[in-house]
Specification:
By secondary structure, the protein is an alpha/beta fold. It is built from 15 helices and 17 strands. It is 37% helix and 20% strand. Strands 1, 2, 3, 4, 5, 14, 15, 16 and 17 form a 9-stranded mixed sheet that branches. An 8-stranded parallel sheet has the order 6-7-8-9-10-11-12-13.
Length: 472
């Protein structure tokens, strides 16, 4: 079938060249809608940036000139949604590879303290391109390192997302609790609280797009209990709610953090942030590994959601998130790759597989189904980012963010269940990735960016940063 897709994509890889209607037919379509609808030999029709038909068999009649794509042998899923990342870390991979979270952080803070806008643009371009190649159509980013002489690093990563073509939810992160005040980061990488609040408000005013088909939305994201003050948490919560934007932070990642909160605040991390206004249906927490039953109940009662990052948690030996218990309690759970410095692969599809394997390793064979895992990566992520009405499933009226996976090669051809092939099998070739109706990856190749040139840019940026930091 590859020849059909090649003919339809054209020389520039843009399926929408010459027409704003694309008709994909012959695929196994997994909608991840509320009924779990799946269609063997089904179709998806995209008009402009929206899905206008999805169902079994051939597509309904479409106007002459529509671009028809033979997707037989393929699985079509909603595009994957990444709910936690630190894109700048793409150029600091492979350092402190055998350390704990706190040891890894203290090794890397001084390196990260030397980033600037140019380096972040390159790093983010690398991380975003790789996300696209692994099926991701929407991603957030948690950027919390703002060197005083580093230029506009938030703008740099937004420009990178526009260059690659992903739907982007960056957050204006922050740290204000340096070592001299009992925090973990060196004083050289923290900011003053007033500067943080002013820059965060400016970021929202400059970039946030609340419209339903937005490609860019901003969140507010102080870094973690051990790198920010309670005052900053409280004031950023007030700011986010005044502006109507979402709130994000790291929480309950390790037992070291639990100890830090018990010693310093006399309560659990969840109780601590709740006292500062940091639970609610506009809040999502990265990791949430070490949760008591009471903490899970608090998240559920307040509508707080979770970005589950199985690979990073395993890489740092932090533990395994109680994803089954969270889902059973009604907490929205999405998946995240976390930063590239604690997950050198940064494959969102790999997170789907790991979420399932780790849940079963922890909770037995019924802890998570293959469709649960795909649900977390799609609708789960859409809920976490507050976009359940717009993305996360293949339904008429939703935005045209989808992934077409090739399952007719040696790696998958005899796997009976196409969702199991995607989740349990090797990563399949990505025939097509569409974001907002636009082809971003075609036949495993990025179409918006030259991957070979980008690899050279990334290598140079990494060498510059490590030399600057005196690490090499
Ligand atoms: Zn993180």
């Amino acid at each position: 079938m590859g020849s059909g897709a090649r003919a339809a994509t054209g020389n520039d890889g843009h399926i929408d060249a010459g027409s704003d209607i694309a008709v994909l037919e012959g695929a196994h379509v997994v909608t991840v809608d509320g009924s779990g609808s799946e269609f063997a030999g089904g179709h998806v029709v995209v008009t402009g940036n929206r899905i206008t038909a999805v169902g079994p068999g051939a597509a309904p009649a479409t106007p002459a000139g529509a671009r028809r794509i033979d997707a037989s042998g393929c699985l079509i899923t909603p595009g994957l949604v990444n709910t936690h990342h630190h894109l700048y870390q793409w150029i600091t991979r492979g350092l402190a590879v055998d350390a704990t979270l706190f040891g890894w952080l203290t090794t890397l803070y001084p390196v990260w303290g030397r980033i600037d806008a140019d380096l972040v643009h390159t790093a983010a371009s690398g991380g975003l391109t790789w996300l696209a190649k692994t099926g991701c159509t929407t991603t957030t980013d948690h950027h919390y390192v703002f060197p005083h002489d580093g230029g506009d690093v938030l703008h740099a990563e937004i420009a990178a997302a526009q260059r690659v073509g992903l739907r982007f939810h960056p957050t204006r992160g922050s740290m204000d609790l340096g070592q001299s005040k009992g925090g973990l980061p060196p004083d050289s990488v923290v900011e003053d609280i007033d500067a943080i609040l002013a820059a965060t408000e400016a970021a929202v005013d400059t970039y946030h797009d609340a419209s339903p088909d937005a490609m860019l939305r901003i969140g507010v994201a102080p870094c973690s209990p051990f790198s920010v003050t309670g005052d900053l948490l409280k004031q950023t919560a007030d700011l986010a709610r005044r502006k109507g934007v979402r709130m994000h932070t790291h929480l309950c990642e390790t037992l070291d953090e639990e100890d830090f909160c018990r010693e310093r605040f006399g309560c659990s991390p969840v109780e601590y942030v709740e006292s500062l206004g940091w639970l609610g249906d506009d809040v999502w927490l990265a990791h949430a590994v070490h949760l008591s039953d009471a903490s899970i109940a608090s998240l559920a009662a307040t509508g707080t959601s979770v970005a589950h990052c199985p690979t990073s948690n395993a890489r740092l030996g932090a533990g395994i998130c109680r994803s089954r218990d969270l889902r059973d309690a009604g907490v929205a759970v999405g998946l995240g790759v976390d930063g590239a410095a604690s997950n050198e692969a940064c494959s969102l599809l790999e997170e789907v597989r790991h979420s399932l394997l780790f849940a079963r390793a922890r909770g037995g064979p019924e802890a998570l189904t293959v469709r649960d895992a795909l649900d977390m990566a799609t609708m789960g992520g859409a809920r976490v980012l507050g976009r359940a009405e717009e993305i996360g499933s293949l339904e008429v009226g939703k935005l045209a963010d989808l992934a077409v996976w090739r399952l007719d090669t040696l790696a998958h051809i005899d796997i009976a269940d196409p969702v199991a092939a995607l989740v349990l099998g090797a990563p399949p070739p990505l025939e097509l990735l569409m974001v907002n109706g636009r082809a971003i990856v075609s036949q495993d190749r990025p179409v918006t960016i030259d991957e070979g040139v980008l690899a050279g840019e990334v290598s140079r940026a990494s060498r510059i940063l490590l030399a600057r930091a005196g690490a090499h």
